[in-house]
Amino acid sequence: DEIDRNPELDMVMSMFYNVISDENGSDCTMEAVSVKGELRDSYTGDDIICNRLSEMRIPYILAWNKLYRCGLFDNVRYEDGAVHEDELIFRSIMERCSHIAVIDKPLTYHRIRPDSIMTGCSAKNAGCALRWMNEEIKYYRKRKLYGQLHRLEHMMCNRYVSDKRYMDAELREQYRDSF
């Protein structure tokens, strides 16, 4: 409906339900995720890039809560075998967007399992996270977006502390060198 009303849209993103499962795969809880903060009628990709780490709770990065204009993926692909592959291409996609709509209504379901890639810790997960965070840090420094830079560096420190037991010495050193 949003695209029918606004055919110039490059992307529409919606809110979602978190469906949290226990170890047996049973659905324990379901919670609606909604926008936190004032929602605008339209965003540009640059708006999203500059505010993705803000206090406003809009699920920018997730690949599965969006409808995309197909041309956005010309010459942009998810990396095979990567974790955080959506974060690795996030900026490439957003830089191509002039008009983005955000619907503050849950339209998809996100199942969270205790044994999933994103809830579990591994060296692969930590290594891929380091890659995208380092790319974003360079970008934020170049654009002088110091608030986002500070929040991302804080996120990186938390990631290091929580995941360092899964990292080999080389990966731990790469994290430390990033600060």
What does this structure look like?
By secondary structure, the chain is of the alpha+beta class. It has helices at 2-5, 45-51, 85-94, 123-143, 146-163, 169-178; strands at 11-21, 27-33, 66-68, 100-112. Strands 1, 2, 3 and 4 form a 4-stranded mixed β-sheet that branches. Helix 4 (123-143) runs parallel beside helix 6. The protein is globular. The mean pLDDT is 83.
Sum this structure up briefly.
This protein is α+β, with helices and mostly antiparallel strands. 39% of the residues lie in helices and 19% in strands. Helix 2 crosses helix 3, helix 4 packs antiparallel against helix 5 and helix 4 packs parallel to helix 6.
Which terms summarize this structure?
globular, 179 residues, alpha+beta, four-stranded mixed sheet
* Count of DSSP strands: 4
Calculate Rg over CA atoms: 17 Å
Q: Ends: how far apart?
A: 45 Å
Subunit organisation of the chains: single chain
Q: Give unreliable regions as ranges.
A: none
- Protein structure class: alpha+beta
* Series of H and E elements: HEEHEHEHHH
What composes the largest sheet?
Answer: 4 strands, mixed
Quick check: average pLDDT?
A: 83
Helix fraction?
25-40%
Shape: globular
β-strand amount: 15-25%
Continuous helix count: 6
